[in-house]
Design goal:
With about 450 residues, the protein is α+β, with helices and mostly antiparallel strands. It is built from six helices and 24 strands. The strands form seven sheets. A four-stranded antiparallel beta sheet has the order 6-5-8-9, with no helix packed on it. The longest helix is centred in the N-terminal third of the chain and has 50 residues. About 15% of the residues are buried.
């Protein structure tokens, strides 16, 4: 066989061709082995994607549409959306997951297509919502859709600071259907960056009622820094939050508004108990009072009784659920008695205690009854006078002059006893002398020698 200009034997050519074919086959097999895992991965991914696409066509949840945020009142917004019209029917119940992003993060779920929220708005407001399975089916939720309210203009340093508010209940004599009315007092300070010509205006909202302040108190620059609402639509027994809003105006800069929410139990200033009475019978002190001026019934109050012993400088404080208290005391002290109250947790969340009632006084500071004191003082005075008189008499011999000794009358009997006594005394002395003389041995010897 001729290949080019060379002649190659047929057998040798076949051997070379076979060798070349074997090498090519081996190289092809190596390439197939190397690419087989990649081909398998691609095939598996294609199968999975096709299955997912089929599954998504049956169970994909679409996000809500027309999501809006609307301000409906002071510190109050309404979130509203619609279910997606392109959502294919699924055999599960759908709900919505709402996420508040600002001013504070909050998450909750609802089946409604609108939601009302009460929150401060001077920092802006933003929220997101997505569709979720309501009954816990293991289906992925839809993607989020969001909406936002921009923060109002103005520097934060121009808005009011240190806003505080208190409420107080008084008797309403003009409206029998509302025997009690609630007043509101708020105070604040001007912002550090507020121009001197800034003027602030305050509003409150409770429920659906909104009012602007009409009675202001001003600082030295004639800026409003306090407000007084003598009558409000606030319910002293309510549980809704009180929204307070303050904005302002100036010729030199925009004034940023300010919102704050108050829980009523935290700002309600309870009145002290009324008609406090006390009496002492022996060692028994009995105290009674009436509930504070309040729309809450009598069983909604807790009380504290403070008894002060003025003589011993001792305080005794007792907590009670009733409007009466009995205590054992000593009956020689004077006592100061005061009572204060608070609304118990049975009727609402507990707040602050009221001020103490005006003190009332019972008992006496005397350590002994007055009659005993009079007798003691009288006896002491008499003893003192007698002591002084005795001392004067002794030092001046006045006693002898005032009371000289009386001479005793002569008596024969007395003389007789005196004579007898004298004789007896003489005879006794003589006898003693004789006996002494006889018993002396020296004298006896001398006598014998003489005679």
């Amino acid at each position: 066989m001729l290949i080019g200009n060379k002649r190659i034997p047929r057998g040798r050519f076949i051997r070379k061709l076979s060798l070349s074919t074997a090498q090519s086959t081996r190289s092809l097999l190596q390439d197939v082995i190397i690419m087989a895992p990649a081909l398998l991965i691609l095939l598996g991914a294609t199968v999975i994607l096709r299955a997912d696409s089929l599954s998504d066509k049956k169970s994909l949840l679409l996000p809500p549409t027309n999501f809006t945020i609307k301000v409906t009142g002071l510190s109050q917004v309404l979130l509203r959306w619609e279910s997606n019209p392109d959502q294919e029917p699924v055999n599960i119940e759908l709900g919505y997951h709402v996420r508040i992003n600002a001013p504070q993060e909050e998450d909750y779920e609802t089946r409604n297509t609108e939601s009302k929220r009460v929150t401060v708005l001077h920092k802006g407001f933003s929220a997101s919502v997505q569709t979720v399975p309501w009954n816990g089916q293991p289906l992925p939720p839809s993607r989020w859709v969001s909406a936002e309210l921009k923060a109002p203009p103005g520097s934060p340093g121009t808005s009011i600071v240190n806003l505080t508010c208190t409420t107080n209940t008084t008797v309403n004599n003009h409206t029998p259907l509302r025997p009690y009315q609630v007043s509101l007092h708020c105070s604040w300070l001007a912002g550090k960056d507020a121009p001197e010509d800034t003027q602030y205006f305050l509003y409150y909202r409770y429920g659906s009622w909104t009012e602007e302040c009409q009675e202001y108190r001003r600082d030295t620059l004639n800026r409003n820094t306090a407000c007084w609402f003598p009558k409000t639509f606030i319910s002293s027994r309510g549980s809704e939050a009180l929204a307070v809003h303050a904005n302002g105006s100036s010729k030199h800069a925009p004034i940023k508004p300010f919102d704050q929410l108050f829980a009523l139990h935290a700002i309600d200033r309870i009145n002290p108990p009324v008609n406090v009475t006390a009496e002492i019978e022996g060692t028994c002190l009995s105290i009674q009072w009436e509930k504070p001026v309040s729309a809450f019934p009598i069983h909604c109050f807790e009380y504290e009784v403070k008894i002060y012993n003025t003589r011993k400088n001792y305080f005794q404080t007792e907590k009670l659920m009733t409007n009466a208290f009995i205590s054992i005391i000593d009956d020689i002290s004077k006592y100061s008695i005061q009572v204060r109250a608070t609304v118990s947790s049975m009727c609402r969340q507990m707040g602050f205690w009221s001020e103490w009632s005006q003190p009332i006084y019972v008992g006496s500071d005397d350590q002994k009854p007055s009659t005993e004191w009079f007798l003691i003082v009288l006896m002491a005075a008499i003893c003192f006078i007698l002591l002084i008189f005795s001392f004067i008499c002794k030092t001046g011999h006045l006693w002898t002059r005032l009371f000289p000794p009386v001479p005793a009358p002569k008596s024969s009997i007395q003389d007789f006893f005196v004579i007898v006594s004298s004789e007896k005394t003489v005879s006794t002395e003589t006898e003693i002398e004789v006996i002494s003389y006889v018993e002396d041995p020296g004298f006896e010897t001398l006598e014998d020698s003489v005679f």
